[in-house]
């Protein structure tokens, strides 16, 4: 049966990098039905909402969804529940993609573009498994209220249940088995009860079902340090939505290859995955042909592998990116001069 | 009037590094009344509590409190409200030290011990102003509850009021005026209402009273990246308790000089300050004479400056540390071979 892919180019450099994915899909001649919808600021401009019910429904009934990027200064004044980010959070939540896989991998050809010394990042290969549909991003009560005397009070709630923790930890343990078999779990169990529950549930699941995997625990502040001090000590890292947001971005930047890094968000087996580059919408360089399409293209490769049943095509795309890079093809962010389209062409030529 | 300093050596390497401060105080021959009390695991062992009411009262009526470090695996099994960290949080809260100043400064003699290339960290001088007595560290409701079906639920509450935000932002703006006059405020206003309130209150205070200071805003995940990419872009950073915990530790590690970094926590004018090295209790090297006493000694210098009215002595201590380092005195963590005591002796000799 023909699989379906929904593209959500979004804002800023999103349409440009997704454009290169479209050209690549054409060149691969795969049996995939590709559709497209408005998302983020682009959807606000057209409909007043960052994502419509119809787009959410299409996403949930596709086999995979590939996003570009959302947001930008143009939509900063939107009401809180109508800003571009609210659309992204709604999509993640309704798709139920609770495990966000964020590889921080250093490409050999790019090891010198890191601010870290080469020996600290060469060969770096960390896989973050970030919880994506819970925690302080979604907890209630939340909001800003007037409390009199010219004072306001802003509240958010960090909340996790046992099963929310276990399902994402399970994903981390399973993935570790196919890698170096080590999982490090990060929380602030020394100051937050939600973090203590996190640690206890991860420990219990490990003992019951994954004793063959090496499990360690690290306080999130210490991990923020250890990622700088000696990033290669890590294999798989599992952590909550908010810590995962900060720590995976920190790790991504260590590689010096931000424009290269893809991500996948997956839920229950058989449900569609949500794929997106790690980089943001980069409004400062949007529309100028300067963006690096590799992260979007590698996110598409993850979609091919995890959601579209096209492992061979995923291998081909990843090999083509490697080959293009090794051959010297580089956009500006990684020290080269190629435009977005020229980089896409170099990858297609390397297929 | 004779000023008073309460020493809380605490656990792990705490007593060793505070020991060097005591020797230094002796050498300085200052008119300061020095007392000492149990804290953290050491207090648990003696009294069952990480800090007693009496110690809290003595801290609040001193002019300054200098801590070593708290915690360690020995006390990991303590009830949640009796663990060493609970004592530290209680002390911070009862002392009302809402502004935690954490300099991330790269010592010229140590620029090569960073994992970052020299050009990214040489001359680095960031001052974090972390909110220390609010946010998710203290918010209620909090706890772990059974919700049936073998499931538990862990909850914490992130909460800030206008005045809690304004008073710490004020400290940041004031300090910026004595430095490069730039403040960057970090939050996740795009997903958390408490972060949106943070941003709005900082902006309003800036407009009303500190328009001469340059103010920028950055999402906390982006800051986690920018600190790696180009740390020298920052001067003063103001952020909440939890983001400050992670981001200031990340920044501290960039310097390659963790064992060198002091911190100060201050509240209302005239109230005592709480001083502590950035590093932890390091149970793995405790009791072996391997710890670097510089962070504790420089924290003592901050106490001299901010709480004890001994500016000249503070200058002398800081100059002595610089001189000792430049003369090649180094403990193991910064590439040397000196013991804790030998390093202390080198600094006293350089006075
Ligand atoms: C855009 C924003 C809502 C989002 C997040 O905070 O999750 C982004 O930072 C990310 O990491 O994908
Ligand atoms: C020990 C712990 C409670 C503390 C914190 O989280 O604030 C520490 O990490 C710090 O930064 O001083």
Description:
Two copies of one chain form a homodimer. Chain A has two domains: about 1-105 and about 260-350, Isopropylmalate Dehydrogenase; about 125-255, Isopropylmalate Dehydrogenase. Helix content of chain A is about 40%, strand content about 20%. Chain A has twelve helices and twelve strands. In chain A, a hairpin with a 2-residue loop joins strand 6 (about 145-150) and strand 7 (about 150-160). In chain A, helix 1 crosses helix 10, helix 1 packs parallel to helix 12 and helix 10 (about 295-305) packs antiparallel against helix 11. Chain A starts with a strand and ends with a helix. At the A-B interface, strand 6, strand 7, helix 7, helix 8 and helix 9 of A face strand 6, strand 7, helix 7, helix 8 and helix 9 of B. Strand 7 (about 150-160) of chain A pairs antiparallel with strand 7 (about 150-160) of chain B. The complex binds 3-isopropylmalic acid (2 copies). One 3-isopropylmalic acid sits at the interface of chains A and B. Chains A, B: Belongs to the isocitrate and isopropylmalate dehydrogenases family. LeuB type 1 subfamily. Chains A, B: Its main location: cytoplasm.
């Amino acid at each position: 049966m023909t699989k379906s892919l929904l593209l959500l180019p979004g804002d800023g450099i999103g349409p440009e990098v997704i454009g290169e994915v479209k050209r690549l899909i054409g060149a691969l001649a795969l049996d995939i039905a590709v559709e497209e919808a408005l998302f983020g600021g682009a959807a606000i401009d057209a409909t007043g909402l960052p994502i419509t019910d119809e787009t959410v429904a299409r996403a949930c009934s596709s086999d995979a969804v590939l996003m570009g990027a959302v947001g930008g200064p143009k939509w900063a004044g939107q009401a809180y529940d109508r800003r571009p980010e609210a659309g992204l959070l709604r999509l993640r939540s309704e798709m139920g993609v609770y495990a966000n896989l964020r590889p921080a991998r250093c490409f050999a050809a790019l090891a010198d573009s890191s601010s870290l010394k080469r020996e600290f990042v060469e060969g770096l290969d960390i896989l973050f498994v970030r919880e994506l549909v819970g925690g302080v991003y979604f907890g209630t009560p939340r909001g800003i209220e007037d409390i009199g005397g010219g004072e306001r009070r802003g509240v958010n709630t960090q909340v996790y249940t046992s099963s929310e923790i276990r399902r994402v930890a399970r994903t981390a343990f399973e993935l570790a088995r196919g890698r170096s078999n080590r999982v490090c779990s990060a929380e602030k169990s020394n100051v937050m009860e939600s973090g203590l529950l996190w640690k206890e549930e991860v420990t219990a699941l490990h003992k019951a079902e994954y004793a063959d995997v090496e499990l360690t625990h690290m306080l999130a502040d210490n991990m923020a340090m250890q990622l700088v001090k000696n990033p290669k000590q890590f294999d798989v890292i599992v952590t909550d939505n908010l810590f995962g947001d900060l720590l995976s971005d920190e790790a991504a930047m260590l590689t010096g290859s931000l424009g290269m890094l893809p991500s996948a968000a997956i839920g229950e087996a058989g449900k569609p995955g949500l794929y997106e580059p790690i980089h943001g919408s980069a409004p400062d360089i949007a529309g100028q042909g300067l963006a690096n399409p590799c992260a979007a293209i590698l996110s598409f490769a993850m979609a091919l592998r995890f959601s579209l049943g096209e492992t061979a095509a995923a291998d081909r795309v990843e090999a083509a990116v490697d080959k293009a890079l090794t051959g010297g093809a580089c956009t500006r962010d990684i020290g080269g001069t190629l435009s977005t389209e020229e980089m896409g062409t170099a990858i297609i030529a390397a297929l």
